[in-house]
Write a structure and sequence with these properties.
Number of helices of chain A: 0
Radius of gyration of chain B: 13 Å
Strand content of chain A: over 45%
Distance between the termini of chain A: 37 Å
Strand content of chain B: over 45%
Oligomer: heterodimer
Radius of gyration of chain A: 14 Å
Number of strands of chain B: 11
Number of strands of chain A: 11
Distance between the termini of chain B: 37 Å
Number of helices of chain B: 0
Largest sheet of chain A: 6 strands, mixed
Largest sheet of chain B: 7 strands, mixed
């Protein structure tokens, strides 16, 4: 079953606008990671946020995590046409043992119009 | 520092043949993960390995699929007697420690005809 569920499924914005993508998950996590995938390519790691963190920044990216609501958001500020891609959230569960596998959502398709 | 390497990038096999997918992790990374992506879907975990050990294979189909990560050389995902439903993109990722950021290779796109 899907652990991460992204929302919305598709987002179309104008260059320069901000893009906000949301992710909800079901079980307790160790960390949550956001990835970008350009069409037909591999995944690029964007940011990792641990369960004891609430917010992280990386360049134009801002990620928040609310463990009480089991949700995360990814904000891309001042979007560019090159940000057009699919974005995935993925979680690592919080249990002992082999706890490193990522569980992905279905992804959000972001289109940034020039 | 080279990223995660996967080869081949594209692989075409007829039904019943074997497919071998290779993954070389990033330098200094001893944790390797394999994921499969079907068209229009997210990635699904298959197997997690450390050198010479399978740590978690809960996502691997019970038959025809196997994975290894030998002491020397790349990690191999092997699919025997491929069927059309095996057509997908197979991604390998590696991490230095676990749980930690996982860095993905470009993927191998398997087409079964």
């Amino acid at each position: 079953s899907q652990q991460g569920e992204e929302d919305p499924q598709a987002l179309s914005i104008q260059e320069g606008e901000n893009a906000t993508m949301n992710c909800s998950y079901k079980t307790s996590i160790n960390n949550l990671q956001w990835y970008r995938q350009n069409s037909g390519r591999g995944l690029v790691h964007l940011i990792l946020i641990r369960s004891n963190e609430r917010e992280k920044h990386s360049g134009r990216l801002r990620v928040t995590l609310d463990t009480s609501k089991k949700s995360s958001s990814l904000l891309i500020t001042a979007s560019r046409a090159a940000d057009t891609a699919s974005y995935f959230c993925a979680t690592v569960p919080n249990y002992t043992g082999a706890n490193s596998k990522l569980t992905f959502g279905k992804g959000i398709t972001l289109s940034v119009r020039p | 520092n080279a990223g995660v390497m996967q080869n081949p990038r594209h692989l075409v096999r007829r039904r019943g043949q074997e497919a071998r997918l290779r993954c070389s992790p990033m330098k200094g990374h001893s944790h390797v993960y394999w994921y499969r992506q079907l068209p229009e879907e997210g990635l699904k975990f298959m197997v997690y390995l450390q050198k010479e050990n399978i740590i978690d294979e809960s996502g691997m189909p019970k038959e025809r699929f196997s994975a290894e990560f030998p002491k020397e050389g790349p990690s191999i995902l092997r699919i025997q007697q491929v069927v059309r439903g095996d057509s997908a993109a197979y991604f390998c990722a590696s991490s230095r420690t676990a749980p930690d950021e996982q860095y993905f290779g470009p993927g191998t796109r398997l087409t079964v005809t």
